[in-house]
């Protein structure tokens, strides 16, 4: 039976995210840079990924580590020069690696010339590039909170009005309803495409179109409504379609929208199959499974049944109509092995491989965040001064001041959930500072680099790194891993995540144990009857295929078979 596949290179690719500040420092100033990335391209080639997503490298005062851009067409001084960028891009292309840029256009830095002008006077030609409102009864225009604590509105003395900033007050939101803003952005995007870049990861793109009425939202623990009140606004799809026509249609790009507050229904529009908008979105529901409502500051552990329900909803929901992106980690999330796995000595390696199996065998384009392929863990931050991330630091002071949490409790939550866990330097080897820098690193190095590092793992066949290499190789070999249909088994099991993939007569059975308990699992009929059952990957080398499978602590195994003739 021939199966007709809707083949696309961006579905068959594996994307690797680089957070440049923490990847590799080439000049000893303690900050990762573009030359450092160029030096390490062979490492990525060795891993086998196809596409690199670069977190922002543009000029920025770094209030939010580059997500506050003051010039979209220059490179951040600490990261190097435009020449370094061009060299990196061509060195990547020489190796067959594509480069996807972070596009941060919901907001700019307050030091961007547009905003410098905009705040000068109500008549300034750039005034309408941003969102200005009068206060209401001597207070902010509405109750929206910034994602990074406090109100989303900042009062500006100069013109005695408020501007909107869904993120820090140094990240004023652009006014996408102004045609001139959109034209400037499309021009800038085209300029990057002309340079030869291969696509865009679009920062909080679901927030660009605001409801001009600015209605109040429901209050959370800090007394403000979530910034997600702005999600999926009235014109967002219209603007993305316009962007597609004015920019994206010119090239064969990979586009992924970071879609805070996205629902399945909305995702089907953003990531629609006819490519009128984006190729895929990052949804957040599986990141919220261990949150406490809108409050992420807790050490609540995931309930596997909920995690499975959410991921299954997205797998089945976008089947045939759109496309999923698959991720456990990025620069905004703690380390997955410490969160969904088990980072104790006995289990970190097994559970890192198990999580990789569970994710990479699903339908969608997988994203690997730097260090995830080594099983890098959360860091033992000791005190608030160890943290660099403004989200973590602001939340600490705000929630302490409001009496929501005690100091030790809040530190415990930060250690578990802070974005800085993902931002400690990449662990290259066991030399000083993990081989990241000769200087003083901008953020602490995780002391476990002596045992967890790339050099050690590249030399070892059963390392987490080698396991990722194998997962990537398998994806290139078996179209079923990219295109097969996903179906969940055992939805109510609290420890085992089991699903099948089906493409024509071929089937995969993916079994992942999210616990340290040993279990048994009777093979489903199609597999039990199959004469050609083989294991294609697993994290225990001595796994026996039996009718009643024995599944050990954090075990992951993938079995493949062809449906028997009688099933046809
Ligand atoms: C996105 C980025 C995050 C940043 C925020 C504001 O969520 O991933 O790092 O802080 O947008 O740009
Ligand atoms: Ca540097």
Overview of the structural elements:
The chain is an alpha/beta fold and 568 residues long. Helices cover 27% and strands 16% of the residues. It contains 17 helices and 20 strands. Strands 11-10-9-5-2-1-13-12 form an 8-stranded parallel beta sheet. A 5-stranded antiparallel beta sheet has the order 14-15-16-20-18. The chain is globular, with a radius of gyration of 24 Å. The mean pLDDT is 97. The structure holds alpha-D-glucopyranose and calcium ion (CA). Calcium ion binds at residues 25-27, 29, 31, 33.
Topology at a glance:
Blueprint: H1 9-12, E1 15-18, H2 34-39, H3 41-47, E2 51-54, E3 58-59, E4 71-75, H4 82-94, E5 98-103, H5 113-118, E6 132-133, E7 153-156, E8 161-164, H6 179-195, E9 199-202, H7 236-246, E10 254-258, H8 264-270, E11 280-282, H9 304-318, E12 325-326, H10 336-339, H11 348-360, E13 365-369, H12 390-401, H13 407-417, H14 454-458, H15 464-477, H16 479-483, E14 485-489, E15 496-503, E16 506-513, E17 519-522, H17 525-529, E18 534-538, E19 548-551, E20 556-562
Parallel strand pairs: 1-2, 1-13, 2-5, 5-9, 9-10, 10-11, 12-13
Antiparallel strand pairs: 3-4, 6-8, 7-8, 14-15, 15-16, 16-20, 17-19, 18-20
The structure holds alpha-D-glucopyranose and calcium ion.
Quick take:
With 568 residues, the chain is α/β, with parallel strands linked by helices. The chain is built from 17 helices and 20 strands.
Distance between the termini: 10 Å
Describe the sheet with the most strands.
Answer: 8 strands, parallel
Beta-strand level of the residues, as a percent range?
Answer: 15-25%
Shape: globular
Query: Measured on Cα atoms, how large is the radius of gyration?
Result: 24 Å
Helix content: 25-40%
* Arithmetic mean of pLDDT: 97
The tally of helices reads 17
Secondary structure class reads alpha/beta
Bound molecules: alpha-D-glucopyranose, calcium ion
* Parts with pLDDT < 50 across at least 5 consecutive residues: none
Strand order, largest beta sheet: 11-10-9-5-2-1-13-12
Q: How many distinct beta strands?
A: 20
């Amino acid at each position: 039976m021939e199966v007709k596949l809707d083949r696309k290179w961006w579905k068959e690719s594996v994307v690797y995210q680089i957070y440049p500040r923490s990847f590799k420092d080439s000049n000893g100033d303690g900050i990762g840079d573009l030359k450092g990335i160029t030096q390490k391209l062979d490492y990525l080639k060795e891993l086998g990924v196809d596409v690199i997503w670069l977190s922002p490298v543009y000029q920025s005062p770094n209030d939010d580590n580059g997500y506050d851009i003051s010039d979209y067409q220059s490179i951040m001084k600490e990261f190097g020069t435009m020449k370094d960028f061009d060299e990196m891009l061509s060195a990547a292309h020489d190796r067959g690696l594509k480069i996807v840029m972070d596009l941060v256009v919901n907001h700019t830095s307050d030091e961007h010339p547009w905003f410098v002008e905009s705040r000068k006077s109500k008549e300034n030609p750039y005034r309408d590039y941003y969102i200005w409102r009068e206060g209401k009864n001597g207070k902010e225009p509405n109750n929206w909170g910034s994602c990074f604590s406090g109100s989303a509105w900042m009062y500006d003395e100069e013109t005695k009005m408020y501007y909107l900033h869904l993120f820090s007050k140094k990240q004023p939101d652009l006014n996408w309803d102004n045609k001139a803003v959109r034209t400037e952005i499309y021009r800038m995007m085209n300029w990057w495409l002309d340079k030869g870049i291969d696509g865009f990861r679009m920062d909080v793109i679901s927030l660009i179109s605001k409801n001009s009425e600015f209605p109040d939202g429901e209050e959370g623990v800090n007394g403000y409504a979530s910034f997600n009140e702005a999600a999926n606004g009235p014109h967002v799809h219209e603007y993305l379609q316009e962007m597609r026509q004015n920019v994206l249609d010119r090239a064969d790009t990979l586009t992924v929208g970071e879609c805070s507050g996205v629902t399945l229904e909305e995702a089907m529009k953003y990531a629609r199959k006819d490519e009128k908008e984006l190729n895929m979105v990052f949804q957040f529901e599986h990141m919220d499974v261990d949150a406490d409502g809108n409050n992420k500051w807790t050490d609540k552990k995931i309930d596997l049944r909920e995690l499975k329900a959410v991921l299954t909803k997205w797998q089945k929901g976008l089947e045939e109509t759109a496309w999923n992106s698959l991720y456990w980690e990025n620069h905004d999330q703690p380390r997955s092995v410490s969160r969904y796995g088990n980072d104790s000595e006995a289990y970190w390696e097994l559970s890192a491989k198990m999580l990789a199996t569970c994710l990479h065998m699903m339908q969608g384009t997988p994203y690997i965040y730097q260090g995830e392929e080594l099983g890098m863990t959360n860091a033992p931050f000791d005190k608030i001064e160890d943290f660099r991330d403004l989200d973590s630091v602001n939340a600490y002071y705000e929630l302490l001041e409001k009496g929501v949490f005690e100091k030790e409790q809040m530190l415990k939550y930060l250690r578990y959930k802070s974005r800085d866990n993902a931002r400690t330097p990449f662990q290259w080897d066991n030399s000083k500072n993990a081989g990241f820098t000769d200087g003083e690193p901008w953020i602490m190095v995780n002391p476990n680099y002596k045992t967890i590092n790339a050099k050690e793992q590249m030399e070892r066949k059963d390392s987490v790194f080698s396991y990722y290499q194998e997962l990537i190789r398998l994806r290139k070999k078996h179209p079923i891993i990219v295109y097969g249909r996903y179906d969940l088994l055992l939805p109510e099991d609290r420890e085992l995540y089991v699903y099948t993939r089906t493409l024509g007569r071929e089937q995969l059975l993916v079994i992942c144990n999210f616990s340290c308990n040993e279990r048994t699992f009777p093979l489903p009929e199609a597999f039990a009857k199959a004469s050609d059952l083989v294991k294609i990957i697993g994290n225990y080398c001595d796994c026996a295929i039996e009718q009643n499978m024995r599944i050990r602590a954090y075990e992951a195994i993938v079995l493949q078979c062809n449906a028997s003739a009688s099933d046809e």
